[in-house]
Amino acid sequence: MRAALNDRQARARSGRPSGVFGRAAAGLAAGVLAGAGGSVLGGCESSSTYSVEVRNGARSLVRARIVLDAPFENDATLDTTDVRPGEVGTLGPVVVRGVGRVALSVTRPSEIGLPPVEEPLDAGAWVYETDDRSQFGVDGVTVMRIGPQATEPGK
Predict the structure, then answer these.
(1) How many helices (H) and strands (E) in the chain?
(2) How many CA atoms lie within 13 A of 148 on its CB side?
């Protein structure tokens, strides 16, 4: 009994965890720190590829962009194209590493001051269509996802 008590006191002084729960907590903490260290060093960084086909059904030119809203950084334009009425434009493929929200941003260059229409993008190859429908009584461009591209560009 006295030996067990002395062993606990020795561990308490040494800073090592004692008991089943103490060892489990120490193992969990070590695992979290190792995982965080690995992702900070870039060893476990993930990447996703995005490409978009934009079909312009609007009566005027639209500017389409793939944008990245990364935490703690300014927004970045990854690709951009101007699409004339009745034509099709292609964005990407672009590869995004790390974290951040990727979106398709569409504006009419002729409508200075109006905010862009933004649609969150899922990784992969997608088809979007624009038109002139008004939304909530405000004229402007509307963006709709039609579906995935039949074949990914570049393949």
Answers:
(1) 2, 8
(2) 7
